[in-house]
């Protein structure tokens, strides 16, 4: 009591309990649950214990019930340290006092999908940073302006995708090698360049003549004009909402992208395609990752663990799903839609993401610690953009635990679907990219995390005696650039593999070193944590 070493744990955190007891702390049991809170642990773990865990288990032995006795003696005392699942589980009266708590208030500004989407839209007003360089573009469908902006973006991305498909799949089918059907004679479509026969309706295996490509070229040229501020004095709406029949254009694009319909190009069109795509790549930071099939991912704005997330390739499908769901977040209009990374780095043909921990120990001044170890989570089935099932595209452990490994999965994918960052670094070296981890991926993750925090700094509920451990999720592009997907305020500490069993124990140990031991000894070891920012 005199040393202020009374703690309370709310939630399944046996490691935190063991570590604090080993430091001489006494636990105050939550009155509502008492001893029931401490969940029984399995007698036999499938993974061998680490040295730290063996020491902790020895400290956790309580043959004479001494820990229970001490807990009884401090039952009326106020805890000095609280580790809880959520801030709402903590008595508000305790937050008014100078107790250490592992959460801040109002962090939904960056730990919900909707909050992060909105906050990063405001980033350029706060920092000289462009969220499009690290966060896939995202829209809140419950907001009319953003819904319209998404529709415009979807159409523009389809036009770019069509030009990419035209170059990649037209092959040697240049104009002159294919003749339009004679039944179309007399039906003409005119552009400023040349008159073309009107093609038959698009369908699987059919050839689409230059009308579709010509429309995509003109839309992309208009977009380039906007990007270059060439339309600053023009009062015409953009992007080209009325210049073409978008419903018909998208239906024809779907036939090309998803049903195998072919394209033919004139030589002049091929040169224009190449030139336009090159200039667009210089202007659009996400050009290299967006691919050509126009895949988007729809997410409930405030859910977690992959709940309600679906991938879609058709505009009408996205809008229908967002309007027709019965989930609470949808009833409130809180859906977000985000561009899916089509050109991502895979491991043995399988999608993965990175769970990266960091701790904020202060918001005024903002102080951020980055954890030097992380882990990768794999999907259960090979990556494919032509099959959008959850087992291939959502890496969350809470999603993948329901799927068995696919028979056509590469046998080198780990059966527990988890890798350490060291295993990933070895894989990058095998790919011929030995420096990508330290020179591209880690710096990119640090910058993305800091930008997300700075964009929400004025919205978070500041409290001097608090800290919080977060888990950020990243995908990696083909060029090894990391892309931030989301930030979790209560990252799981329940091990799903030998790798996570070791790492989750280590990050909890090092977090206590950082927030407790360092107070009395600023030079003590903080394990794998690195101070990356102090305002």
UniProtKB/TrEMBL annotation:
One of its GO terms (biological process) is cilium assembly. Residues 29-62 are annotated as: Disordered. It catalyses: L-glutamyl-[protein] + glycine + ATP = glycyl-L-glutamyl-[protein] + ADP + phosphate + H(+). Pfam families: TTL (PF03133). InterPro entries: TTL/TTLL_fam, TTLL_monoglycylase. Residues 50-62 have a biased composition (Acidic residues). It is found in: Cytoplasm, Cytoskeleton, Flagellum axoneme. GO terms for cellular component: axoneme; microtubule cytoskeleton. Its main location: cytoplasm. Keywords: ATP-binding, Cell projection, Cilium, Cytoplasm, Cytoskeleton, Flagellum, Ligase, Nucleotide-binding. GO terms for molecular function: ATP binding; protein-glycine ligase activity, initiating. PANTHER family: TUBULIN MONOGLYCYLASE TTLL3. This is TTLL3 monoglycylase. It comes from Onychorhynchus coronatus (Royal flycatcher). The gene is Ttll3_1.
